[in-house]
Amino acid sequence: MKDYKKQNRKTSRCEVSKKCGGCQYIDVPYEEQLTKKQRRVEGLLKGFGKVKPIIGMEQPLHYRNKVHAVFDFQKGRGIVSGIYQEKTHHVIPVEGCLLEDEKADQIIQSVRSLAKSFKIKTYDEDTGYGLLRHVLVRVGHATGQIMVVLVLGSPVFPSKKNFVSELCKLHPEITTIVINVNNRRTSMVLGDKEQVIYGKGYIEDVLCGRTFKISPKSFYQVNAVQTEILYQKAVEYAGLTGKETVVDAYCGIGTIALTAAGQAGKVIGVELNRDAVRDAVTNAKVNQVKNADFYQNDAGRFMRQLAEAEEKVDIVFMDPPRSGSTEEFMDALFCLRPSRVVYISCNPETLARDLQYLTDKKRENKGLYRVEEITPVDMFPFTDNIEVCVLLSRRK
Ligand code: SAH
Predict the structure, then answer these.
(1) How far is CA 82 from CA 70, 85, 121, 176, in A?
(2) Which of 246, 268, 271 most suits a substitution to test ligand 1, by most atoms within 8 Å of the C-beta?
(3) Is the pLDDT of residue 334 over 70?
(4) Whose CA is nearest to atom 12 of ligand 1?
(5) Which of 48, 197, 293, 389 is deepest in the core (most CB within 10 A)?
C-alpha cells in the first residue's frame, strides 16, 4: 500500500477532493502521476508506434486559466459558490482550488460577498427563480487580462452598474465583464444571449509569439504553459518548409493554424463554433497573417468537400473534442492523402480507436498511414486526463 493512499483516506491536501472528484491524483506525488500517465498511454498506444516520455510541468499547481463556479443558497450558510458534487446538482462550497488560477478564485470570492451585500438572489435550479447562476473567470496567462462572465437566470440585473464598479474597485485587474443569460433548465453553463457591461467583451492572450482574442464561448486550452509546448511539438511534427497547404481541423480560435502559418504556404482552419471562427478570423488580422482562411463547418463534412473538390492538402493538424474524429473525416483524409497528419488528442481511448482506423492494413485503404511518434504532454496535472500529440506519415 502506497503512502499517499493511506494519506488520502485520512487527510487529503484538498478538503473537498473526495466530493469534487475533479482531481483523481490530488494526493499522488507529481513524478508518480507522470509515470502513471506514461504507462497508460503506452498501454493504449504502444502497438502503434514509439511513445516518447511525457512532458511534465515544473510547477504543476494553479495552472487552470479558466475557472467556473456555480452559485447557490444554502440554509445556515447563505450564498455559497463552488462546484457540483460529482453526478449530482448539489453544490459543494469551495474557497480555493489547487489547480485554478489564484486571482480567478479571489474574484469569485469577491462576487460572492458582493452578491450578499447587494442582496442578489442566487438561481434556484428547481424553481427557475433567482438571478445569479454561475461565474466564469478567464485569465490571459501572458497578458494578465481578465474576463468575468456573470451567468444570470434573467436579463434584468437592477444593480449592475454599482455591482460592476464595486467589483472593479476590488479587482482593478479585471479588463472585461460580460453578462450571459441562461434561463433554461440545463446543465450547460452558458446560454446564448450576451451583454458586455464592462470593457471589450473578450480577453487576449499571447501564445507562441501570437496574440489571440478569446470570446466567452470560444474554446481555449486551460493550461497555457503546456499548450505552448504542445503546439511547438505539433508544428515540429508537421515538418513545414514554407510551401505546404495546411489544414487545421477543429481549430478553435485558430491557435495552431496561426502558429504554423509563418512556416506554411497557406493554412485553412475549420471549426464548428461560430464565435470561435469569428475569433480566428480576427486573430489572423491582428497577427497580420495573410495566408490563413477559416471556415465554420463540421470538420468531417468540410474535409469531404475538400476531397470532392480534389484540393491539394499537404499537412493536416487535427485536434478533435473528447469524442474523437469521425470515419467521414478520416475517409476524406484517405482521399486527400496529406503526407503528414498531426493528431492532437485529449482522450487516448478515442485516439487509439482513430489510429486503428487510420493505420489498419486490412481495410480498403490498406493502412495508408503509419504512426511515427507519440508524445504525451501533461496538460492536466493532478487529474487523470491526458493530452497526446501523434505524428502519422503516409506510407509510400
Ligand atoms: N485546436 C484548438 C481547439 C481544440 S478543442 C485549440 O487547441 O485551442 C476542439 C474544438 O473542436 C473545439 O473548438 C470545438 O468547438 C470544435 N469542434 C467540436 N466538434 C466539431 C466538429 N464536428 N467539427 C468542427 N469542429 C468541432
Answers:
(1) 5, 9, 16, 22
(2) 271
(3) yes
(4) 252
(5) 389
Q: Is residue 325 predicted with pLDDT exceeding 80?
A: yes
Q: For residue 297, give the 3-state DSSP assignment.
A: coil
The third-level CATH classification (topology) of the domain covering 66-203 is OB fold (Dihydrolipoamide Acetyltransferase, E2P) (2.40.50)
Q: Domain extents for the chain?
A: 33-58+223-394, 66-203
Whole-angstrom Cα distance, residue 81 to residue 114? 12
**Residue to substitute in 215, 250, 319 for testing ligand 1 pocket (most ligand atoms within 8 angstroms of CB):** 250
Q: How far apart are CA 347 and CA 335, in angstroms?
A: 26
State the catalytic residues: 346
State the CB neighbour count (10 A cutoff) for residue 396.
Answer: 5
Tens digit of each residue's pLDDT (9 = 90 or more) over 152-209: 999 999 999 999 999 999 999 999 999 999 998 887 899 999 999 999 999 999 999 9
The highest-level CATH class for domain 33-58+223-394 is alpha beta
Question: Tens digit of pLDDT for each residue in 116-137?
Answer: 999 999 999 889 899 999 999 9
Name which residue sits closest to atom 20 of ligand 1, judged by CA.
Answer: 272
> What ligand 1 atom has the least distance to the C-alpha of 219?
13
What is the torsional sign of CA 14, 16, 18, 23? negative
| Rounded Cα gap, residues 385 and 219, in angstroms | 17
> Which protein residues touch ligand 1 with a CB less than 6 Å away?
219-221, 250-252, 255-256, 270-273, 276, 298-299, 319, 321
Place of cell 474554446: 219
